[in-house]
Amino acid sequence: MTITTLSSRELNQDVTRAKKATKDGPVFITDRGRPAHVLLSFEEYQKLTQQRRNIADALAMPGIEDIEFDPPRADIKTHPAEFE
């Protein structure tokens, strides 16, 4: 896999080059010399987003602690069994 790095200016001047470079790997796009964006082929994007996670992995994701989740308590009532 080849990683290509382009400045925002280079991307604006030659979008076709950036799109072609995604065939070999991700394209890092920089703003003022710092990585700001990543351009991927659609196939690579699909590979990344179609990963199956188990519940433990999902709960361990960064930022999960910022999600508010307060489910209502289950109110389960039992009744005695009737045998005849």
TrEMBL record:
Protein name, as recorded: Antitoxin
InterPro entries the record matches: Antitoxin_Phd/YefM, YefM-like_sf
Superkingdom assignment: Bacteria
Function description: Antitoxin component of a type II toxin-antitoxin (TA) system.
Similarity comment: Belongs to the phD/YefM antitoxin family.
